[in-house]
Amino acid sequence: MPERNTISWNGLISGYVKNGMTWEAREAFDKMPERNVVSWTAMLRGYVQEGMIGEAERLFSQMPVRNVVSWTVMIGGLIEDGRVDEALKLFYLMQLQGIRPNFPSMISTLSVCGSLATLNHGREVHAQLVRSLFDCDVYVCSVLITMYMKCGDLVNGKRVFDRFTSKDTVMWNSIITGYAQHGLGKEALQVFYDMVSSGVPPDEVTFIGVLSACSYTGRVKEGLQLFESMKSKYLVNPKTEHYSCVVDLLGRAGKLNEAMNLIRDMSVEADACVWGALLGACRIHNRLDMAEVVAKKLLLLEPENTGHYILLSNIYSSQGRWRDVAALRSNMRVQSLSKSPGCSWIEVEKKVHTFTGGDITSHPEHAVILRMVEKLDGLIIEVGYSPDGSFVLHDVEEEEKVHNLRHHSEKLAVAYGILKVPKGMPIRIMKNLRVCGDCHAAIKLIAKVTEREIVLRDANRFHHFKDGSCSCGDYW
Length: 476
Prior knowledge:
The protein is mainly α.
């Protein structure tokens, strides 16, 4: 070209970026005599799609002018990188700088709100969608339902669902999966039958939802019938995810031999998800003999997954086999593997407060939180609580076990919630791992003695604690 302007340069850069040629795009970008916001955004998108988030952040910080597209690209990059809390902060910073969110940025932020369970932020984004007239879109409603369900707000999730007369498969799946995660098996199955009767065909995701719902609520007969009907009636071929749900269903019900037989007869190769479900069942029912066999399978499939080591360690420690626990931990050290620390968080006044198990001093209000933990401990002991030392994974004195249990991350978050969340409002806690049995028993009693409703979302499901009982019926 005898003459090149900004548009032609941008065309070349965008072409390179779309074809994954990031470094060629950067070379052209550096040679440009004059750049505009389109040039910068195209280059930013190139770093984000290649996963070079550090480079993207540097480029974003150097941009002289940013438009809504560049902000949205950067927010999406942070989400893809797993830095969802930073993505949420960037979304609000964008608005503080006078940039009105567009449709993609709002949808991305809604998914972040669901992941972090920041309900107040999610409600704000919902309001923005309404003002922008985006809330009538079927896809938007599916994302809204998922966000509300993940935040533990079943009422608003169902309200969004009921507003639509013509629902697609994704919307039906959102509400079924939501009910399943909350342990509402009856409601999930009813929605499934409503879906079928309305003429919407169920898909693979639908069956993961309903089979999970059956597993979480002990509906073995219904779950097995649905599994059998997948292929014969609904023409959906079962995949490993569906087998995993059925193994979990049988395992939770104590039918471990039937679960093992199902794995052996699978039409597809069993993966770590399937074997992991069986190992979890071995933990529940103390089947050490089977657990050791299953663990060997898992460690061959995923030798770097610390979760398998920890689950087997839990089983050993519950039976006082401390030498085996020590051997497992030694093996982990040799392979440079470390356990992910238990982490819980709670949103208070639009700010997320994070707690890590055993680490009380990092929070600025640690002194008052510790006093509340001790006060709650005293109150629940009066009504029958007895610390369960089998959930402490070290061979230590009983007094130290009680101390360790008291400082589990979910108990710290609950104590902070009681201090900060007004009475009459549910205390909503999230945890990155499965809640331990001792904390589950303790939080039931905390809900009773404080007359508070506590909603806990762990790595597997939701627990609604109220009046001394849990929605899971201790079947989890």
